[in-house]
Amino acid sequence: MTPDLIYGAAGLAVFGIGLWGAIALQDRMRRLLGLKLCSVGAGFVLIVGAWREPPAAPDPMPHALVITGIVVMLSATAAALALIRRLHDLEDADDRP
Amino acid sequence: MSDALLLFDLLLALAVVAIAAAALLVRDAFAMIVLFVVFGLLSALAWVRLAAPDVALAEAAIGTGLTGALLLKTLHHLRARGMAGWQPGAVAQRPVPRAVAWLNAGLALAVMAGLGVAILGSPLRVTGLEIAVAEAMPLSGVENPVTAVLLNFRAYDTLMEVVVLLSAVIVVWQIERGAGPAPAPSLGPVWQGFARLTLPAAALVGVYVLWAGAEAPGGAFQGGAMLAAIGLMMLLTGLYRPHPDHRGLARLLFVLGTVAFAATALLVAGGGRASFEYPPSYAKTLILLIEALVTISIAVTLTALFHGREPVALKGDLRHDP
Amino acid sequence: MTGPDWLTLSIILPLFGAVAAFILPRAAAGLGLTTVAATTLCVLMMADQVAALGAVTVPLGGWGAPLGIELRADGLSVAMLALTGMVGLLVSVSAIDAFAGDRTARQRQYFWPLWLLLLSGLNGVYLGTDLFNLYVMIEIIALAAVGLTVLGGTREALRAGLDYVYASILGALLFLLGVGLIYLQLGRLDFAGVIAAPPSAAMTAALAVMFVGLALKTALFPLHVWLPAAHANAAAPASALLSGLVVKGALYIVLRLAGYMPALTEDILTLIGLMGAGAVIWGGIQALRAERLKLLVAWSTVAQIGLIFVALARAGERGLSDSWKAAALLILAHGIAKAAMFLAAGRIKDEIGHDRIRDLDRSPIRPTLAQVTFALAAISLIGLPPSLGFIGKWQLMEGAMMAGYWHWVAITMIGTLFSVAYFSRVLAGFLRFDRVRGGPLAEHHGWSGADAAPLILASAAVLLGLAAGPIIAFIDLGAGGAMP
Amino acid sequence: MTAIISMVLIGAGTLFFLAGTIGLLRFPDLHCQLHALTKADGLGLTLIGLGAALLAGSAGDVARIALICAFAALSGATCGHLIARHARRGNSEARDV
Predict the structure, then answer these.
(1) Where along chain D do its domains lie?
(2) What are the angstrom distances between the C-alpha of A38 and each of A10, B96, C217?
């Protein structure tokens, strides 16, 4: 048992939970949250790939990739949330007599 | 000692997974967001444990902090408009049959288990690119390897990442055009005092994180996120109110980082050098310059993403955009 | 590398154009058209280089793979870039007309920056050789494409756009997970490293995850559910871009990876082929049932994409290195013809005022040129000679027959029959005049300068079949070497 | 000697956190939960900070720890206030925040 194994498994599990949320849930914000969990899960996999047994320094390349991934995911989240808000307004206006 | 650490790892990993599941399963939407923020912070902690402080900083500031703020803002918007007792699930188009739900869960489980088995069955722990990075570090112009990868070795990726942010703000403005102003939350005097007290400190921290990125964990994205937090606080306290006349300036600030980055990439080319190939003697100057401009763009863009709609004057909208 | 760096320019030029169009909304149309034209010029210069040298590689930052990122142009990339440039230019021309009025002022304002960002992302995908970079690029494409989908701002478009966002992000994240797993195995992400990797269960798993992600993005059956609504509810130029160009981005990555993956076995190829066959049949059935013209066209996209995957799978393991040529031809043919068809459908809808298929023959207005355009595009999509679509299908069937895979030949024939059936529903409406009520046909036949661009595109889709030989020779450039 | 004192301080701080968490889980309503959480956690963090400051190598580190404690106390208090305010308004006025 080493940390990379533990967190690698956790990352895959988080990705799986997110995947389930994104495909199985109905609520719009929750599906988006599922996708965000997937991105964190993928981040875990990359960071585990960078980890080395302590005296050795970690591989910086995956770290940079994950930072990029975080920013990309925030951008996608912002766009999706804007859609959710706008759609809610339109549907709300429709529901009113 | 290592046993204690191992126990810590196990507990933390377990907590991360459990809270991820809880966030999706909890009924109340507000609780969902709170659990998500806890999840994000614990993930960041795990990443510190895995010797990735830069990433942990980015995840805490951007992936959790700002994402959480965006989620809360959206929830507030949904609850304030119409459906007073809005709960997630209320918009469910059609109920999912139990069998389908279990099928989905089984599918996700099978996929992940399959991946896990396939990965375990193969040799792990190959050498990555750390040797190549270490060899090229003296030529990169900075001392923090992550910054070197982001701003020099893979500068093209990072430029495109800034472009992704720019695309996001364009898309958000496009989607929310014609939307009414969001109802502003009233946060009260204590909050105002808090904001006034912490704003200068936050500005200092943001600039420091940007500057430190050359040698220590930090950089343009983390620094930009800290500065964006100032923007959020100014929006929430009403210290700054977006005005239609500010749109031109806002657009300029959004694109500043992209333009500076891309222009530099093209201008350094020629004379046997490829695009993005900074001359080693100027590399540090160029990188810091690009980072500074990109940080400004990131901060403004993230603030705008939080604010949402483009500040245009709508009919009957004068109350909110005076 | 000799001469200017056309590769980087063709990615960064649209970026500057997008920025300029965003800052100066009033001049957006002019800036946009100029940028697309200039970018297409870059691609032509690049084509010249590639024709002379075989393949051009640019090590960005001077580091070289795997530390840095390399751009690489060979015959196939340039063919895709040329497709993007040609379709993009003509769609741009027709977009100027489509978004001309005051009513669409804000749509016009945002169309140009989004479309130019999309162009930058697409060009980046076609030139990219690094898996993570491809992930970033497909996210740019996804965001811009979502913006284009919801340009009209209607409730249906927004709903379709949201489904599209979810599918798109999930597809990209599955791709990212695959990228992470590959890094875990290989410690590098450039194509050369991935190709040289020894086959293993982990590599197969990683590639499978990436394939599922990309299949979600190209809407391969049964992951296609988001596509019809998204493509049918967008504004006409946006639909043309989405259906003609956007789905090709992820398709191209599949093609690139599939051509060189040692991990692909006969079973996986058969599975891909079966998914494609499912798309051909299901897309055909849905297109037959569609009530609206744009929805029919969108479902036909699902079917055609399925056919492209059949083309990938048809020759089996042995003939894989050859079968991508048929797939590439079909991609080019579909890109041009489908863009023309969506533009024509938009014109028909504008002139007649609706796009209900069963009422098409009741309109006193006859947008003749748009109808001719639609028919020409249909010829290429059905695969009648001498169109480019015909050559693609011919290549497909020839290869499958030589390999003795009669089932893929049968699927292709079934797909062709379906496409004849569903396009006839529309074409029959164009040709019948007896159900027009309220007197004779209107004086104005409902055509204008706006029909020129789609007509040129549709004609190209048919006539390029005559130049199939040179095209096949060109996409083969630089493919035989040690590098992909 | 310093090590023992700092261990004791950190241990005490952890206990306060534990108490606060138990309060969060066991107290009946939101205001009681806030009462438990904000006070106990504030004190707990300060104690841990003190303990860590004793172990710190340089004056700079001590200053940083002091800053962390100050800002955490500030934001903790503000958060508690905002949550309480939100809850009270949510009950009386119709869902303001």
Answers:
(1) 2-92
(2) 12, 22, 16
Q: D74 and B188: CB-CB below 8 Å?
A: no
Asked whether the beta carbons of B140 and B277 are under 8 A apart, the reply is no
Task: Tokens for B215, please give them.
Answer: 């040698």
| CB within 8 Å of C397: residues ≥ 6 apart | C408, C409, C412
CATH number of A3-95: 1.10.287.3510
Answer for the pair A66, B158: CB distance below 8 angstroms, yes or no.
no
Note the pLDDT of residue B316.
42
pLDDT score at C482: 36
Q: Which residues of A touch B129 (CB under 8 A)?
A: 59, 61
Name the residue ranges covered by the structural domains of chain B.
1-93, 94-126, 127-322
pLDDT in tens, C109-163: 899 999 999 999 999 999 999 999 999 999 999 999 999 999 988 889 999 999 9
ipTM of the complex: 0.90
Mutate to test the interface with D, among B83, B187, B205, B226 (most CBs of D within 10 A): B187
C5 touches chain B (CB under 8 A): yes
Angle among Cα C32, C33, C37 to the nearest 5 degrees reads 120
| 8 Å CB contact between C114 and C147 | yes
Cross-strand partners of C56: C73
Name the burial class of residue B185, with classes exposed (0-12), middle (13-18) and buried (19+) by CB atoms within 10 angstroms of its CB. middle
Count helices and strands in chain D by DSSP H and E runs: 3, 0
Q: What is the DSSP letter of C358?
A: G
Identity of the residue in C142, C159, C173 whose CB atom sits nearest the CB atom of A39: C173
Which range (A56-65, B34-43, C247-256, C259-268) has the least confidence? C259-268
Confidence bin at B142 (pLDDT 50/70/90): confident
Domain segments of chain A as ranges: 3-95
C395: its two tokens? 């290549």
For the stretch A26-49, pLDDT in tens is: 889 999 999 999 999 999 999 988
> pTM higher than 0.80 for the full model?
yes
Quick one: how far is CA B204 from the chain centroid? 19
